[in-house]
Amino acid sequence: MQTKFCSEKITLDGKLNEEIWITSEIATNFAMTNPDNGKPESKERKTEVKVVYDNDAIYIGAVLYDNEPTKIRKELTSRDNWATADMFAVYLNGYNDSQQESRFIVSAAGVQLDCIYTNNNGEDYSWNAIWDSHVEITNYGWVVEMKIPYAALRFSSDKKQTWGLNFFRDVSRDRQQFSWNLIDNKINNESVQAGVLNGIEEIETPTRLFLIPYSSYYLNSTKQQTTGKLKGGLDIKYGINDAFTLDAILVPDFGQTVYDNVVLNLSPFEQQFGENRPFFTEGTDLFNKGGIFYSRRIGGSPSTNANLGTDEVFTKNPATVNLLNALKISGRTKSGLGIGVLNAVTDKMFAEIKNTVTGAERIELVEPLANYNVLVLNQRFRKNSSVSIVNTNVTRDGEFRDANVSALVFDLNTKKNTFNISGDYKYSYINDFGASENKKGHKMSINLAETSGEYRYSIGSEYYSKDFDPNDLGINYQTHYYNLYTNQSYRILNPTKQFNSFNLEMNEYLEFDNRTDRIQSANFSLNINTTNKKNDYYGYGFNFRPIKIYDFYEPRSDFEMKYVQQNEFVNPWFYLSTNYNRKFALDFNPSFAIINERERYNFNVSVTPRYRFSDKFSLNYSFSYGYQNNNVGWVAFDNSNNTIFARRNRTTYSNTLQGKYSINNVMNFNLSVRHYWSYAINNKFMSLQDNGNLTDNTNYITNQDRYYNSWNLDLSYSWWFAPGSQISVLYRNNSFYYPDTDFNQNYAQNFKNVFRPENLNNVLSISIRYFIDYNRAKRWFSI
Fold first, then answer.
1. Strand pairing partners for 736?
2. Of 1, 53, 4, which Cα lies nearest the Cα of 195?
3. d(CA 121, CA 655)
4. Residue burial 99-138, b: 16+ Cβ < 10 Å; e: rest
5. How far apart are CA 479 and CA 482, in angstroms?
6. Which residues contact 437 (CB under 8 A, 6 or more apart)?
7. Strands of the 4-5 sheet, one edge to the other
8. How confident is the model at residue 532 (pLDDT cuts 50, 70, 90)?
9. Would you give the DSSP letter of residue 40?
10. 462 with 470: CB under 8 angstroms?
11. What mean pLDDT comes out for the span 253-257?
């Protein structure tokens, strides 16, 4: 497609009446990508798109014809949330290397969505750019105008630009998607199938310097006291050049981030949480190469624990570490070399301790000043392949643990995108705390895959040494093993009389302890996923383990030398998700597992009804219930350091409610409520033997029942009063209840317990963020 330079001012009003629009080239002849891949768009719903540019931005004008404009879906939501609404999108790749796209999406209700797309990770909506758009519903369909500043894009410094380009349209009521350059579902790579945008020449881009100052006020209330706190800080975005950008946060404030869905965790592994802090989610695709960066480590738990002496108690014991500041630099050269640098500094943290007899008080350092670094070099080539070198480093002040992890990662595809070979090599070095022994470890993997057509398959293997440890700035659960896995799948590429989509997949996985060669995992699965002609989704299948395995992780032994035998199981499941275009829709997911032990089984079910009252108001409720009968797991070590297991019954209830009311496309109320209750009752205790078997232990009588009861409610108001500028108000009410003596299994009573005044925390916060463009701000002072 050929674009042209625009010297006149374009007003985003959905009219496309400027002279430049009238004389511009038209992109049309869209083709269906789903469900009937390759079918040309109909004349009644044709799409016409034009692109022009100036020295500040590129502009997209799209006319989306519809012979039934009253049926255009236009549900309102908050930004970056898909809804029951027609969509239009432009996909841009400033390097035309077919590897990463910036996607800008507008719904027929005027709601903006944006994301970074890569073939490995799909669409990442945590990225947010600052751009403008306008939508107009007409008697012949709807019209979109978009202005995307160069500051939101990355491209080379060439005087003559060639960009990758594609357009996308979603007709919600029919669940049909179209693209300008056909995205052929025979090929497992969307970005490699983009078209080309020519004509951008000698643009004089302005200085890309953006300041986002913010101020927040928090009012915290408990039964004991009410306190207020005022915070302020600054985010900085600076375009070093057209390809590289610096992002920095000074005095960060993450008080309004989404709460974590904490669970009763009885496994030997920590619970992993998603990242909710904008700085660590926006534009971090480069930093996720190699999978050795888990940003929740920054500002997470202290790396050591304080030691209590006789008669001592904590008066303050920090659960998290304060983040002082952070910055990242990222971009890509003309030759396709991506460079990413991330640095963060966290503060010293002290535990405060008091002797209950003498009254003496002291403090103990549990986390020193720490510096976190990530360096990424990612070379792309041949429009579909890449090689990356990644390094993470954590340096703590003084005699505390330091860590360094490096990775070499490759992803290679044939010219026609029919075969893929990928893998990595990772090396970790830990300079441990005090006199603890330093550790060196490594991990390697290889995967081969056929990635096109109806039939696809893959085979791969991984190896983890016993001392591989990326966990200071990454997350990894298991070591000292190697595995072998295979996958086979079949899919239809076009609809049949019964199905709009059909996919059958088989997976086989074997895992061995690399010190003893004992098998520690053997899982096989058959999954079928279908969409019928009414666009209702059905999934069903089963997982099974046909042999006994040896679990080296559940016993929690020193160096994970002990193991427990785990028996065979089979686990059938079913999933139904009705068409969300209907006002009422339902998700239903039951599963049942039978373990080859007397009266041992698991049952889980989740039910999620959702109702759309109007384009502005909707509610989604979800209930899930899980029950494990005669589950077996570790509970403790006795006084003789014997490993104690228990046969236990575990019950879990989870109730969540999500609601939204959208006043318009920039002003929204959102409600998020979760009550979670889970408990495990031990029926009898057992001792772990050296051969991995369990024998009854009638001498151990310590109460090891486990219980977790939590409540979270967030009611928020958000108003994007200008591009990049936001006012948000949040009321948060939460409670965590851990009873010592009054535990009972009555759901109603436990629900009441979280609302006891002594358990509840209340927070009311108001935050204002204001986006300042340096180019506009300097005009203020020149007047």
1. 710
2. 1
3. 30
4. bbbbbbbbbbbbbbbbbbbbbeeeebbbbbbbbebbbbbe
5. 9
6. none
7. 4-5, 47-53, 57-65, 141-149, 132-138
8. very high
9. B
10. no
11. 83
In this predicted structure, the answer to whether residue 89 has a pLDDT above a threshold of 90 is: yes
Give the sign of the dihedral formed by CA 510, CA 513, CA 517, CA 520.
negative
The pLDDT tens digits of the residues spanning 363-410 come to 999 999 999 999 999 999 988 999 999 999 999 999 899 999 999 999
Confidence of residue 781 (pLDDT cuts 50, 70, 90): low
| Token representation of residue 751 | 């629900």
Helix, coil or strand: residue 174: helix
**Separation between Cα atoms, residue 605 and residue 624, nearest integer Å:** 6
Could you tell me which residues are beta bridge partners of residue 343? 327, 373
Over the chain, what is the mean pLDDT? 93
Q: Nearest Cα to 667, choosing from 130, 136, 78, 113?
A: 78
3-state secondary structure of 76: coil
Of 78, 87, 74, whose CA–CA distance to 666 is shortest?
Answer: 78
**Distance of CA 224 to CAs 316, 317, 445, 732, 758, Å?**
16, 19, 54, 17, 8
Q: Which tokens go with 552?
A: 């080296």
Backbone φ, ψ for residue 769 (5° rounding): -120, 130
Q: How far is CA 435 from CA 312, 438, 473, 479, in A?
A: 26, 9, 22, 23
Position 578 confidence tier, pLDDT thresholds 50, 70, 90 = very high
SS3 of 21, please? Answer: helix
ω into 318 cis (within 30 of 0): no
Dihedral, 510, 601, 711, 83 alpha carbons, nearest 10? 60
Residue 738: pLDDT over 80:
no
Give CA angle at 288 (283, 292), nearest 5°. Answer: 150
- Euclidean distance between CA atoms 646 and 705, whole angstroms: 10
Q: Is the pLDDT of residue 423 over 90?
A: yes
DSSP assigned state of 85: B
- Exposed / middle / buried, residue 657 (Cβ in 10 Å: 0-12, 13-18, 19+): middle
Q: Taking the alpha carbons of 279, 281, 285, 291 in that order, is the dihedral positive or negative?
A: positive
Pairing status of strand 4-5 against strand 47-53: parallel
Highest mean pLDDT among 187-191, 271-275, 333-337, 567-571: 567-571
516 Cβ partners below 8 Å, 6+ apart?
A: 550
**β-strand partners of 160:** 201
- Contacts of residue 330, Cβ cutoff 8 Å, sequence gap at least 6: 244, 245, 247, 283, 286, 287, 338, 339, 340, 341
* pLDDT tens digits for range 627-664: 999 999 999 999 999 999 999 999 999 999 999 999 99
Burial 209-238 (b: 16+ CB within 10 A, else e): bbebebebebebeeeeeeeeeeeebebebb
Q: Which residues contact 324 (CB under 8 A, 6 or more apart)?
A: 251, 345, 346, 347
Q: How far is CA 392 from the centre of its chain?
A: 20
Q: Give me the mean pLDDT over the 97-101 stretch.
A: 91
pLDDT, residue 124, reads 87
DSSP of 606-670, one letter per residue? EEEEEEE-SSSEEEEEEEEEEEEEEEEEEEEE-TT--EEEEEEEEEEEEEEEEEEEEEETTEEEE
Once rounded to an integer, what is the mean pLDDT over residues 201-218?
90
- Token pair listed for 164: 């990758």
pTM over 0.85: yes
Q: Is the dihedral of CA 625, 629, 634, 637 positive or negative?
A: positive
Helices and strands (H, E) in the chain, number of each type: 4, 44
Task: Tell me how far apart the alpha carbons of residues 349 and 341 are, in angstroms, rounded to a whole number.
Answer: 26
Put residue 750 in one of left, alpha, beta given phi > 0 → left and psi -120 to 50 → alpha: alpha
